[in-house]
Amino acid sequence: MANSKITELTAFTAPALTDVVPVVDLAGPTTKKSTLSDVLKLTYPIGCIYTSTVSTNPATVFGFGTWSAFGAGKVLVGLDSGDTDFDTAEETGGAKTHTLTTTEIPAHNHQILRERSATTGGATTQIARTADTSSTVDTAIFTENTGGAGAHSIMNPYIVIYRFKRTA
């Protein structure tokens, strides 16, 4: 075999969408020729998602199809037919922040100090008293409010990417 050795390497060039690539037909012992563009069309059919760290629309990159930005600001979740929150493709839900309701606040207690007798040091009543030290029992005693009732973040750790869906 003459020239069976590689004697020189040529510079790498990016593949063109019109380059011909061999495709093996598994149904028969034949090899067909196809373009890279045709292979990519099979790889990214309509409804497929393309993810990248580059903002270039895949129509420009691949030279075919109509692609639209997909899932802006959303995290992907796998379909779970047993959970009504996740049982339909492209269903959305959730929130970036959430303000806790009273039932969502962890169980806890607040200390209420009792008034003590100036002469004996013993507790004179089983309820908290205001600054009024008369013998009248206070009937509506509350601890001071705390907190700002603001929403808290419920976001998972994340990394931002570009995501496109082929629509045509």
Quaternary form = single chain
The helix tally amounts to 2
SS-derived structural category = mainly beta
Helical residue percent band = under 10%
Shape: elongated
Q: What radius of gyration results from the CA coordinates?
A: 35 Å
Q: Give the overall average pLDDT.
A: 78
* Main beta sheet strand tally, sense and closure: 3 strands, antiparallel
Q: Which residues form runs of ≥5 with pLDDT under 50?
A: none
Beta-strand content estimate: 15-25%
Task: Write structural notes for this entry.
It is a single chain. The chain has helices at residues 36-43, 58-62; strands at 20-25, 30-35, 49-52, 67-69, 97-98, 152-153, 162-166. Among the domains are: 12-43, no CATH class; 45-93 and 157-168, no CATH class. The mean pLDDT is 78. The protein is elongated, with a radius of gyration of 35 Å. The protein is mostly beta strands. The longest helix has 8 residues, at 36-43. The protein has two helices and seven strands; from the N terminus they run ββαβαββββ. A hairpin with a 4-residue loop joins β1 (20-25) and β2. Strands 3-7-4 form a three-stranded antiparallel beta sheet, with no helix packed on it. The chain has a two-stranded antiparallel sheet with strand order 1-2. The chain has a two-stranded antiparallel sheet with strand order 5-6.
